[in-house]
Batch of 3 targets.
Target 1
Amino acid sequence: MRIHDGLIGSVLLLLSLAVLWHVQGFPPAPGQDYGPAVFPGLIAGGLAVASLILVWQSRRSGAPWLQPGAGLRSGRHLAAFVLAIGGMVFYILFAEALGFIVCSVLVLVLLQWACGVRPRVALPVALVATLLIHACFYKMLKVPLPWGVLQPWAW
Amino acid sequence: MDAVLLAIQAVATPMVLVVMLLAGIFGMFVGAVPGLTATMATALLVPITFFLPPVPAVAAIVTATAMAIFAGDIPGALLRIPGTPASAAYTDESYAMTRKGQGETALGIGLVFSCIGGLFGTAVLIVAAPTLAEVALRFSSFEYFWLVAMGLTCAVFITSDKPLKGLITLLLGLLVGCVGLENPAGHPRFTFGNTELLGGLSLIPAMIGMFAISEILRFTLTTEQIGSFGKQIGSVFVGMGRMIRRYPKQTLRGSALGTAVGILPGAGADIAAWMSYAMSKKLSKEPEKFGTGHPEGLVEAGAANNSALAGAWVPALVFGIPGDSITAIVIGVLYMKNMNPGPMIFMNNPENVYAVFIVFILANLLMLPLGWACIKASARILRMPRNMLMPIILVFCLVGAFAINNSAFDLVILLGFGVAAWLMEENGFPVAPAILGMLLGKMLEEHFITSMIKSDGSWLAFVERPIAGGLALFTFALWIGSGWLAWRRRASAHPPPLTP
């Protein structure tokens, strides 16, 4: 997805101004001239200048504000893209409650299906991959992956 | 000498050797599958290395990356798709050789000269790193400030043909590095009351996001398909002795340029291969043959990308400044393993440093048999369904990012940085400067503030010491030279309108 450089530059300019404004509130370091605001202030100043140049350079580019690539214009690819991000959001929100195994199988089946794998193949692949990752991280490396709803059957 | 013996003992354990073998197979696989990169291999290995002792952890990363950079040549030669970006420079050339019926030679060159280049880079690492470390012991905050500033400058101007965009991502990376409590004043910055942010944004989940999640997102949107090939591959070692005798100068030049590019912060194997292929063509006696399936450029660039890997470890070990994005992750791992990089590591843990050297030599030798096996199995590896693989890697990333701190917040960082890196690359903003900024921001600030306090606010003190002055001069020369080049390029791209 191409975004117009002018738009990116403007957003970054706003960001750098926000940072510059925010660091004004940092307390000075006791007993010396260089407090916590100096370094981020300098960087934000540099970013503001660089964004201004970016905006200035792009003023005649003639590119559209937003230009989705070939993938984003194809429904199937867009679905896979949205599912990849959505799957991660789902995992972050529900892994604790539903457990790793349930979330992982769900995400894997849906995402494989969106990428064009037949559900008949996707489900066993998802199950095997999930159990392998679980065995590797939970059993061997002792990472406390959540059990969630499967807690009564934890192994 | 005792340290060398200790290092041999540390490496020659069944555990380290098995880890190297497994990591080598993993690296070959990752390199050979288009869309999976050597940096991604490192990012995926980190959660596993987290649970290993320091020597096998480093051994795993060194081996996997060396293999991945070579294995990237395989789909390049067979399908005209580079397996990793480091092979992109000469994919057309090696595919042209395959079409002429010389596919075995193209693959053999990739394998043999990767090994030679890797060993050359390792030799430079072994000689240069301890020597530089002795010099670095005398460095004060002024020298370190300029060293980091120079490294960041290189990252901006070398990794991208658009220095302005590189500069912007560098500044964004530095801003991200400011988050948290760890600054000279100990004031919580940009945490907005969030306790998870007090320690700063976790670097490892961020890097897994930037190198793995972004690749997965890009894959979901790729519309082109990978073809297949049916031909049996013969012996790849036939005629390699002749190649070595025919192109000794090219081998040396490629290895030397590759190592040098590796040592420069921010630029790694990809850029080494591009520069070296271009140089080979420029200095060749028969430049007209380039692009038609001519082995000369393959020899030079194939050696260059593997030598860059070892070169990148020089600044990483001596100064804690990564030479490429792989060593950026490695430095994160070294800190986790209490093997803090810097000149002191050569005094306090010389056996660990020597172990890294030995691992490098072993990994490059292991490349020959493993690479041969990988070429033999390439038909099967290239048929690997990526639409099953990518979702599995996604879940692996989620678990891996969680495993570092057992924190669900790290998953948010993983996702955020993954999407950000994808958007950046889509719009021509290079990612490497951002990584360097995030990693080196604290170091830059610490040395800057310390220097300012020491010099009582006088800027002159920054250039008074001879080495500091030299580094400063070099940094400014880079800024001015690159700025002038960029301006020239813009001027020639937009010629002034002609008046009739």
Target 2
Amino acid sequence: MDFEVTYTPEQEAFRTEVRTWLATNIPEGLEQPVDPGDLSLEQYQKLRELGRRLGAKGWLYPTYPKAYGGGDLSVDFVMILEEELDRYGLHLPPYYDSGGRLGGASIFVWGTEEQKQQFLPPIFRGEWRTWQLLSEPNAGSDLAGVQTRAVRDGDSYIVNGQKIYVGSLHGCEMMWTIVVTDPDKPRHENLGWLMIPYGLPGIEVRPMELLTAGGEGGASPGLKHTIFFDNVRVPAFNLVGGENNGWRVATTHLELEHGGGGVVRRNRVVDQFLEYCITTKRNGETLSKDPDVRDDMVEAYIKSEIVRLFGLRTYWLSHAHKPRSYEGPQLSYCRKTYALEIAETILRAVGPYAMTNDPDWGPLNGLLEHYQRSAVVGLHPGGTTDIQKVIMARRIGIGRTTKEQAGRLR
Amino acid sequence: MDLGLTEAQELLKTTAANFIQQEYPKETIIALESTPTGVTPELFRKVAELGWLGIIIPEVYGGEGRSCTDAAVLFEELGRGPVPGPYFSSGVLGALTVLHGGTEEQKHAILPQVASGERVLSLAVTEPHHGWRPETVQMRASLQGGAYTLNGTKLFVYDAQAATHLICAVRTSPSTNGSTSGITLLVVDAKAPGVTVRTLPGWMAQVDEVRFTNVRVATTAVLGSTEGQGWETLEAAALQAIPILCAYQVGSCQTVFDMAVAYSRTRVQFGQPIGRFQRVQDHIINIVNHLDAARWTTYEALWKLDTGRPAAASVHLAKAVTSEAYLKVCDSGHEVHAGVGVIREYGLTLHTQRSRTLYHLLGEPRYHRRRLADALGW
């Protein structure tokens, strides 16, 4: 086994290239707020500029074919990109683009050649930021029970309905959603998967007031919206995967949402919490020397290590194209439940300071305060922890001899 | 990055699995479970012939010279049984102790015999004030007339009944009592006059009390060239041995997982397989989460050891996670199996017993959590 990438000279040369490139192409004055809800328009535009520059090199979505705007890069090269971006506290994509990250995969697997040519390059080159629209007021865990309707009218679909927990700060260019295309068909056979340009007439976007905005495994969005569709006319060309096939198209991005792509990043909050305990004195004694705090530190560390290893394992399975089963939802389940437990551990170890982002009293510029909220919010995006367990059970084959297959990623 | 096994490891895994299937059917393991040695001479000979008692011993000392990860692949399969017997105590922990602490002459004298199965080693370290810490080693060896005299009791000694030789941790100088250093390891013939080995009754298995009454040991029995280096030797041996022990526990967790999934499909209550009930599913998901946490912390520690990376923190992490996971996996296994799970012939309790018996070996989870904090420099 090898838990690290052993880089070839060619790959090390690539690292030098990436490092040099980043040094000149990361926009000046780029800084990321502790609370993604504080991301200014100016900072967002800098991130988008970086995204377009990466996209022009094929480095924004580097594993996809060059023909569609990707970079044709193998997993080891992508690791180098991620490692080098990580030095700046960034990753791919450098802003919230879960619609592109997840929807791009669906279009790649299920789209016609014409659809791929039209939709993928703008996503992969960073020209579009894309939002995914899945949950509705009456369809959360039961996602297949969505009610938003799309009725065929000539070369268009007329869309009516409402979606919630959508998007991020500062808008987007493209959205996609699952809609009911045939209400008379049985569950899972009645849906369509539709790309919808953001600016079409009849779309209303209304911000939601949430505890904080949780992301679907990607960069934090900063803000979520309710979106209303009132007789929105969408080109029929934009239906990906064919009539009433939307649920199968969705299995691809749901697989990624459920953790199937894995992750190679550390939990930076835990790292900074540990560093804080080592460097902070209370009553003349370093926090980490307090036996109770030390136990808490170990607890948080162990959980973050387990999640890191699950992320690495799943990343390897996915990128080395190995058979996958329950591993993605297991990563998602453990990441979420452990995050909540770690938040409690931090609250206990640090004390009430962890509940304020006051410049005088809040540790780490409010990072720990934000974590107290984001760990709670983070339980639901990309499927609740209970849903992850349901998927795990089906794929393991608990109580059933036929094991459900993991969603296609290629 | 490659988290799969090598071809050679896959081969070893298959060979071990086939051997265990043939030689260690469930009935055999149940019969051996609570015997003093956990093994028969015939089975021990067969395992020795496969070279597995010398898997980690360098070839120059008559072993197979394979990596820690290779040894772990083997012990994961043994854990699936769970196969009892002194394979870990002698072939891994004992061998590594001699390898790290012995003189060249001792290594040449002892290790080939360990690999061939002629010698069986067991570590006698802990005492009535139990703890895997140097301060708890209090037994004295006084030097009189060119030989040591040993008096005292070693408690919770694993596989002493099967051992031909005990590697016994003692204090040779009164001034070192209670200190972290100054411990000496003596290789003592288990049949020497004054050595009494008694199997501890109860749920634990192959764990013994060893009494020393005026046992005379030659000074040549000191492992290494000087006195007082014993704890450092034990630490170095344990660093490599622990993840291999963890792999055994991972294998056992894997079997409990497989048993629970199989049972969830076949056991019908309220007109459907019990695995259709989400409360039952929760138990099995709990099992697989613990199993995988144990597996990946263990194999990452092994990888660090085999590639010469600093491994201490990872080893402590793996032991803390794995010993705890093993207990919880068996607990959840019993939740799934209910009454059937506690029928001895069913086989689940083999794992449950072992999860408790191995919990403290080479330090319990709490100890390793503390050592983890130290190793991370906090």
Target 3
Amino acid sequence: MQSSAIDESKLTLNYHQEAAGHHGHPDHRMFGVILFLIADSMTFIGFFAAFLIYRTMMPVWPPEGTPELELLIPIINTIVLVSSSFVMHRGQAAIKKNDVSGLRLWFGITAAMGAVFLLGQGYEYFHSELGLKTNLFSSCFYALTGFHGLHVTVGVLLILSVLWRSRSQEHYSSGSHFGVEAAEIYWHFVDVIWVILFILVYLL
Amino acid sequence: MSTSAQTIATSTHDGQNSEHKQRKWQDYFTFNTDHKVIGIQYLVTAFFFYFVGGALAEVMRTELATPEPDFVQPEFYNQIMTLHGTIMLFLWIIPAGAAFANYLIPLMIGAEDMAFPRLNAVAFWMFPIGGTLLMSSFFVGPAEAGWTSYPPLSLVSSKWGQEIWILSILILGTSTILGSMNFITTILKMRIPDMDIHSMPLFCWSMLATSALVLLGTPVLAAALILLSFDLIAGTAFFNPAGGGDPIVYQHMFWFYSHPAVYIMVLPFFGVISEVLPVHARKPIFGYRAIAYSSLAIAFLGLIVWAHHMFTSGTPGWLRMFFMATTMIIAVPTGIKVFSWTATIWGGKISLNSAMLFGVGFISLFLIGGLSGIMIASVPFDIHVHDTYFIVAHFHYVLFGGAVLALFAGIYHWFPKMTGRMLNEPWGRIHFALTYIGFNLTFLPMHQLGLQGMNRRIALYDAQFQSVNMICTIGSYLLAVSTLPFVVNVLWSLVKGEKASRNPWRALTLEWQTSSPPAIENFEEEPVLWAGPYDYGVDSEMLDDDSSIEEMLAEVSAEAN
């Protein structure tokens, strides 16, 4: 409601403003983000469950003749993505001290690390002997990593939009930086999903 | 945002006759963030699809009047059967529940609007887009694999119709997820300070349970449909046995959403009934906490019963036992609700107006649907009636006898609040009588057809079933006719109906403390919680007329200051 005009009728309706956050209304956006992430995690749980059912029901898993997955690049990717979460957290710590240039520095590094992850994923896709339709395992491999990669892409875009908005010194401050926090919690979420996915698809 | 800023209410403070700007009719066709506009948008759009889905049902019943497929081609029958199911579930009853939730939740808890008004408007506009997309599949030949779209059938029939079906369900599912985020946040975070969670109306409790199910279930359906889409378009074999996949995995993922979806469809209307019955019986609700917590119990149990739809899919014996037991346990919280509703009206000062008639009709029909549900929860019985008309009878008793009758109860109850006009009582009763008779005539005989082994989802059947099928078809025509008095009543009352006061039913929940229809940001003055939501008959001498309520309100607010 940030653009609502403050006029007389508005002033008579101010009974919610005791607990006022931004713009005269309590800020529930973070609560909404968490609800969304709960829902989003259920999508991954659905994919993981399908994968686990295939794994238990098939006599041989992965099916015979599946080429071995190369582990080097995924391990590097895992290290990059997990450490990027810590890097990103320093950005949030910076904005809590009103340090906008610190925020831009750490978020910039995080975005770069996300891009490295996506490039690694792309390299793996192009050099893998697995095709989308090779067998059930390879289809699952591409569906799971692809859907996760889509989430990483969205995460990088979120970080870039934080960087774009932080061009003006006043946009984020120690008291008001919902966009920073939302991007960060989303990034941690994508990170956790990757760890589970890595264990399920590559290690098990 | 800008629209709500421009049309902000200019309220005066004499309470009763406040002059505030009304919504213009154009507002209802715009991207408006007012929860009341969105609620009406949901309701009217849902009713549009109700009539489309109903027309498809009449085509099916006309075809089934005779054993031979003579009225429409069997292939076309499969298509309209698929669309009838999909429309009635995803474009009618779920959005209709969202309509009530959008309109009522902020009013009931004394808030100005939803927690995320713009997100709310986005969620609404995805609904007509998804609906139009689904309708557009008529140009390429709609999906014909039933609303369940089980592979491999869905992979080998009308490819593009099926893909459009998948896309529209993904859009509609996203819409319900966004809506649910709003409902949960609004209910938990935006109640007026005096209202703790145990003094909020039961409708809010039921929407909490519904929204939790949407958040946990819908994404799993999305995952299943994305994989199905890959099978359909890219030629993978997640669910295609020809390529080494497993169709049973689809069934698990589908029903993990679609069984809870039954509660997503019916729980909001349990809430509606819990609001309507105490008001028109002038008695406190029986067992407030029992009703509130049983909603949560139903939601939890609803998540662990899905494989009872798969008793004939080669599910191992021990798993069948588990799902049979959990399914039967759901009868306990559901029974608690039916018992509480009955006890609520027992010995009350019942006024048998249209809202109450639909409410009582709901209890009777939902009870039948619930009892047949326990029957088919039992594995041996289910194997006998699986995919027969017994199932069709069962879920229509739950979804039409349950959800739709309660929905009409809600409309007769809140129409004065939504529009500022009363509905016509005699025509409401005629509507109820025709609906009740037409419904039972259509669906009661189907129990018998199912027990005798008539298969569902097929355009032709054995000649021995014809006489009973003819009864069903006549009943369905009566059901179609029954909507006429309703439509005429609504349209006529919108223009010429008796003006409604702010609280025509002398109800206690907060939405009745504001004008009818409510001002643009809901309350001109801070709403005062001076009684529990169902404290009827407790201080009856103080409820005699409007002026004493005003006095009480003044008194309470003076104390609060």
